[in-house]
């Protein structure tokens, strides 16, 4: 039965986070101007922009140091000429996700859990994104088409966890997000609901009272996995948000991607783990980058990653050391390296 308490949406008027989402920076020239950057030092790639447009929220840009091409946040969003370099082994679909897409909007790669591509869009285009080539056009169901996905989950009692991903599920309106959650809530064998989102980092205003009240009312255990790669992405406002989520029964974890010249040093990763924990977030995964075409300049190899984790293990308590993982096509789960 649908819980009427979560079915009521207060207003159809845009909220502050929606206004921010509708006013993203999409023109590299505007970004250059806002950050006082010399375009001659790192020209943008028209090819990269055509293939994967620039998208970045203004609150995130405010955290980037001006006039600094080496800023770790800027490196994550800038459509660099380096994306044009082709490298052997880097392909459009390194995880062969199209092989695990039995119905529109649903991926079933691992036993016991399915992923719903709840939204075809994000608030930010991370240049290392492993789904930058994903066929969202074929995986953006209408409400009627979502019924096939819900039926698929209903008919497989071995599935006890649903993961909302995308795109970014928190980029959905409350009305659409709550509707999806209500449908999942009616599937009796689903005991855990996991939401993967970068919005709590790039548009912290998304964590508002309506969302908090909603997430605290479903019978499933709710886990929010945020995506933060560097301690400079964290703010005092976010600390308050994560505390409120915990108060509403939501477990908050973080996953990062190990990125060359962004966070591939032990000191950076140690600082990130400490900052996350001070914000009431537990480090969860540190991913080796997926070998996606256009992203080779972010890649760090396994040997270097192991060295970094060894240093972290020597300097941090175990609960602050994320699992180092890689996702390998055809494996039954993420492959834990350390």
Automatic annotation (TrEMBL):
Domain of life: Bacteria
Keyword Iron-sulfur: yes
Cofactors (names): pyridoxal 5'-phosphate; [4Fe-4S] cluster
Tagged with keyword 4Fe-4S: yes
Catalyzed chemical reaction(s): L-lysine = D-beta-lysine
InterPro entries given in the database record: Aldolase_TIM, EpmB, Lys_aminomutase/Glu_NH3_mut, rSAM, rSAM_sf
Residue ranges crossing the lipid bilayer per the database entry: none
Keyword vocabulary terms for this entry: 4Fe-4S, Iron, Iron-sulfur, Isomerase, Metal-binding, Pyridoxal phosphate, S-adenosyl-L-methionine
Post-translational modification N6-(pyridoxal phosphate)lysine, affected residues: 334
Radical SAM core domain location: 108-331
Binding sites annotated in the UniProt record for [4Fe-4S] cluster: 122, 126, 129
A Gene Ontology molecular function term of the record: isomerase activity
Pfam families attached to this UniProt entry: Radical_SAM (PF04055)
CDD domains: Radical_SAM (cd01335)
Family as reported in the entry's similarity comment: Belongs to the radical SAM superfamily. KamA family.
Protein name per its UniProtKB record: L-lysine 2,3-aminomutase
Native organism: SAR86 cluster bacterium
Gene name of the record: epmB
């Amino acid at each position: 039965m649908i819980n009427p308490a979560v079915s009521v949406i207060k207003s159809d008027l845009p909220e502050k986070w929606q206004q921010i989402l509708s006013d993203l920076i999409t023109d590299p020239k505007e970004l250059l101007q806002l950050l006082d950057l010399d375009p001659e030092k790192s020209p943008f790639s028209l090819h990269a922009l055509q293939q994967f447009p620039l998208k970045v929220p203004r609150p995130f840009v405010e955290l980037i140091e001006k006039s600094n091409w080496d800023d770790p946040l800027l490196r994550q969003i800038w459509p660099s000429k380096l994306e044009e370099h082709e490298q052997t082994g880097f392909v459009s679909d390194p995880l062969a996700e199209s092989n695990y897409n039995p119905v529109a909007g649903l991926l079933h790669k691992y036993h016991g859990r399915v992923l719903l591509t709840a939204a075809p869009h994000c608030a930010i285009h991370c240049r290392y994104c492993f789904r930058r080539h994903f066929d969202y056009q074929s995986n953006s169901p209408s409400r009627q088409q979502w019924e096939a996905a819900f039926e698929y989950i209903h008919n497989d009692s071995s599935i006890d966890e649903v993961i909302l991903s995308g795109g970014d599920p928190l980029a959905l309106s409350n009305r659409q997000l709550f509707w999806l959650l209500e449908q999942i809530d009616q599937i009796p064998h689903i005991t855990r609901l996991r939401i993967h989102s970068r919005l709590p980092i790039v548009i912290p205003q998304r964590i508002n009272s309506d969302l908090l009240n909603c997430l605290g009312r479903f019978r499933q255990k709710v886990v929010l996995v945020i995506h933060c790669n560097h301690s400079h992405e964290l703010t005092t406002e976010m600390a308050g948000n994560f505390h409120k989520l915990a108060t509403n029964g939501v477990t908050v974890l973080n996953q990062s991607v190990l990125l060359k010249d962004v966070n591939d040093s032990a000191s950076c990763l140690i600082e990130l783990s400490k900052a996350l924990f001070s914000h009431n977030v537990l480090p969860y995964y540190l991913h080796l980058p997926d070998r996606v075409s256009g992203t080779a300049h972010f890649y760090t190899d396994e040997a270097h990653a192991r060295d970094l984790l060894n240093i972290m293990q020597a300097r941090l308590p175990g609960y602050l050391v994320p699992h180092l993982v890689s996702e390998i096509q055809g494996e039954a789960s993420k492959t834990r390296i350390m």
